């Protein structure tokens, strides 16, 4: 029975992950093209995608590398952009924190915006969902997403500047985040946090890369928590 539940959860995860492939492919191709144009060879480009596996941080690092920034600044800024993964990890602890270390390590590697968003949205309505089923669902979401990230990066790197500008691959990044965030805005706290993050991200746009995003994210979390506390007291 447990095996059947895991298979069902894995299939559900795959189905949840499939829609994201529509933006993962152009997003990965765009990175491959940009990395090639920035002077990275095929091995460096693929290693970048396989080791970092975080599009926003990869584009940020490439931008700084193109400007001749020091290595320490490139690494620090990429880490700053990716600090949201620490928030994702904290949010997943109640669901996956009891898993064996090697499984948590796999989740950590496969945790990107899409896998986190889809898995969390599936976990929250199901208080009694078994740990094995939650893991199976998470890995199911990653199954169509992660391999396509590698393949599309490879395609972009091989095609390089041969990709027509008319394809407008850069649409993939904002579209990805809109697709992830839209279904998650279900409560007043979610809406409040989103509003604060939008306003402060724009207000802090002039700060060094990554800093404004972090400040906006922290303020948004505080706003969401404050709204939830107010609602609980009002109830």
TrEMBL record:
Keyword RNA-binding: no
Annotated TM spans: 12-36, 42-65, 72-93, 135-159, 166-185, 191-216
Location relative to the cell: Cell membrane
Listed Pfam families: AzlC
Keyword Transmembrane helix among UniProt keywords: yes
Gene Ontology terms: cellular component: plasma membrane
Entry keywords, A to Z: Cell membrane, Membrane, Transmembrane, Transmembrane helix, Transport
Domain of life: Bacteria
InterPro entries, A to Z: Brnchd-chn_aa_trnsp_permease
Family that this chain belongs to: Belongs to the AzlC family.
Protein name stated in the entry: AzlC family ABC transporter permease
Upper taxonomic lineage: Bacteria, Pseudomonadati, Pseudomonadota, Alphaproteobacteria, Rhodobacterales
């Amino acid at each position: 029975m447990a095996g059947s539940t895991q298979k069902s959860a894995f299939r559900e995860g795959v189905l949840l992950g499939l829609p994201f492939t529509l933006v993962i492919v152009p997003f990965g191709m765009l990175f491959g093209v940009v990395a090639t144009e920035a002077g990275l060879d095929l091995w460096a480009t693929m290693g970048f995608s396989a080791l970092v596996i975080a599009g926003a941080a990869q584009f940020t690092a490439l931008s700084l590398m193109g400007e001749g920034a020091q290595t320490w600044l490139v690494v620090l800024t990429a880490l700053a952009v990716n600090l949201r993964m620490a928030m994702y990890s904290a949010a997943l602890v109640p669901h996956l924190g009891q898993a064996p270390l090697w499984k948590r390590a796999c989740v950590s590697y496969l945790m990107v915006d899409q896998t986190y968003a889809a898995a969390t949205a599936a976990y929250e309505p199901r208080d009694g969902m078994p740990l094995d089923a939650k893991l199976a669902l998470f890995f199911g979401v990653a199954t169509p997403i992660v391999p396509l990230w590698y393949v599309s990066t490879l395609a972009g790197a091989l095609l390089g500047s041969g990709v027509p500008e008319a394809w407008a691959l850069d649409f993939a990044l904002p579209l990805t985040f809109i697709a992830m965030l839209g279904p998650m805005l279900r409560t007043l706290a979610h809406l409040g946090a989103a509003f604060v993050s939008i306003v402060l991200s724009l207000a802090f746009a002039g700060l060094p890369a990554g800093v404004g995003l972090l400040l906006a994210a922290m303020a948004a979390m505080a706003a969401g928590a404050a709204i939830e506390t107010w609602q609980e007291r009002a109830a």
